[in-house]
Amino acid sequence: MALLFLGAVDLTRAFYYYIALENASREAARVLIDFPYEYDDSVGCTAGNREGLPWVNVSCATGTLVISPAANTGVNPPKRLPGRRAITVFATTSFTPITPLMQQFTGGTITLRAQTTMLTWY
C-alpha cells in the first residue's frame, strides 16, 4: 500500500510539474505576441522562467525554453515579421521521481515537454 501511495504522489508531482511547464511556455508566448516591437526574445524567456518558478527552471540560455521563430535581432528594436504568424514556444524539464520503484520503472528521470503556439496580432 505504501508503494502505491508513493507512486501516486510521484505521478501527482509529475503532473504538477507539467502544469507549471505549460504555464511557463504560455506566458512566454503571450509576452512575445503582445509586444512584438518592444522586446527581443530574452523578455519572453524571463517571463516564462518567472511563471515556472519554483517548480521548473526554464531558460533560453540552457535550451530548456525555445522560441520559434526567433526575433530578428539584426535591427533595432528587435522585431518579427508583420502579419498573423504563429509563434511556438517549447519548454522542457527533467523530473526525478522520489520513489525507488518509480525510478527503476522510468530509468531515473522523465523528460517533460510542453508546447504553446499563438498567433501574432501585428
Summarize the structure.
The chain has a 3-stranded antiparallel beta sheet with strand order 1-2-3, with helices on one face. It is an alpha+beta fold. Helix content is about 45%, strand content about 20%.
Helix and strand topology:
Elements: H1 2-34, H2 41-52, E1 65-68, E2 86-95, H3 100-106, E3 110-119
Antiparallel strand pairs: 1-2, 2-3
Report on the structure:
- It is a single chain.
- This protein is of the alpha+beta class and 122 residues long.
- It is built from three helices and three strands, in the order ααββαβ.
- It has a three-stranded antiparallel sheet with strand order 1-2-3, with helices on one face.
- Helix 1 runs antiparallel to helix 2 (41-52).
Structural class: alpha+beta
Q: Which blocks of ≥5 consecutive residues have pLDDT under 50?
A: none
Percent helix: 40-55%
How many independent structural domains?
Answer: 1
Strand order of the largest sheet: 1-2-3
